Amino acid sequence: MSSAAENGDTAPGKQNEEKTYKKTASSAIKGAIQLGIGYTVGNLTSKPDRDVLMQDFYVVESVFLPSEGSNLTPAHHYPDFRFKTYAPLAFRYFRELFGIKPDDYLYSICSEPLIELSNPGASGSLFFVTSDDEFIIKTVQHKEAEFLQKLLPGYYMNLNQNPRTLLPKFYGLYCMQSGGINIRIVVMNNVLPRSMRMHFTYDLKGSTYKRRASRKEREKSSPTFKDLDFLQDMHEGLYFDTETYNALMKTLQRDCRVLESFKIMDYSLLLGIHILDHTLKEKEEEISQNVPDAKRPGTQKVLYSTAMESIQGPGKSGDGIITENPDTMGGIPAKSHKGEKLLLFMGIIDILQSYRLMKKLEHSWKALVYDGDTVSVHRPSFYADRFLKFMNSRVFKKIQALKASPSKKRCNSIAALKATSQEIVSSISQEWKDEKHDLLTEGQSFSSLDEEALGSRHRPDLVPSTPSLFEAASLATTISSSSLYVNEHYPHDRTTLYSNRQMGCCCCCCC
Asked: How many Å apart are CA 173 and CA 83, to the nearest integer?
């Protein structure tokens, strides 16, 4: 999939030229990553398993890898470099917690060349993905790496208490030193699998200040849009069944509170949308068949960290919204406001920004010029609340908000009105003859009955203030059916009078 990023040190118009980061060629960085991780993970297998101790979070192991090789390291054609591994035992525990075996970790990272990805952000970081789609490798700044290392004890505690999370899953923190330059990298889960085409990709923060993709980003083959673009393209939001919606919002709320407790802000929700269109699906299958992985067939599965598993836990799936495509790659089933079937891939990214002095000054300066509540940089508590409100009200919605089909509406009305008719018949059976005239003339009182019965479906947003002609006809059919139920307990003349009075009320409401 992807082309090299267009930021960094690559000159415009020279896209075929190799990109550099801190004056180091990306090929040298990729080679050092594979050699260094291959050595450190292989060396770690000789150490016995044990509980993680507090001091394990601050251990740094270092190995020198000369180009001519040594007794411990292989020869290579890159410049001499030193490779540091931060908290190796702690990260080994994290990988085991996520079900990643050492052999699989090494195979994914070291067996095939890493693939460079485009970076839509302004950080200038390099992004690499493993050939089997499992892991993302990102270069990070010194402050971010330092913050992650300090975060590890709290991260460890949170994962033990809450394995269901959309927060990044960190698998390793490393540093390559060569020629007096330090290049720090972190290995994380891959949120957006390349083997599943993303028809739309969004980076959402819940803010509106300058939150629109640039013209340069829009010209890319797979652009990453932002909040204002989402509000324009998906103004009705994305719809889930009740169970999935509740699980997703619960996970987001819990993750945001964790980030708030760590004084983290300026994070984003990376959202990939795949539209389940049969024509597009067939084209994608043809493309994927042209580049098979003969060594490891069917490996583009992203089993270690799927979006569905992150909100519902392993072994669970959706409620049958999507049945045509059994291989959903762990995507969350959803629907658009047009009724299109979707697969959503998502994860919270960029969590290594703490509300330090520079961020406080940035917010204060922007707040003087613009509306302070709309800028992305804000204090952690406000940022979390705004982020959750945006996701809850503008991005994700329950599927009940969609227009129900006539058959479902009629079935729900029958079930609700049958239950309601029982209560009403029992309450008025003693005074039936005395109130015949009143019941026939007070048709308006039963309009509230209709609303109460329809409201029992727990879909108040679908009930109009004035019933439509279709609902009136459906209600008439319903009450005619419910009269058969009443006939088992009461004489025919009373049931007929009751049904006629209900029918008269419906006609009044429709008129």
From this structure: 11
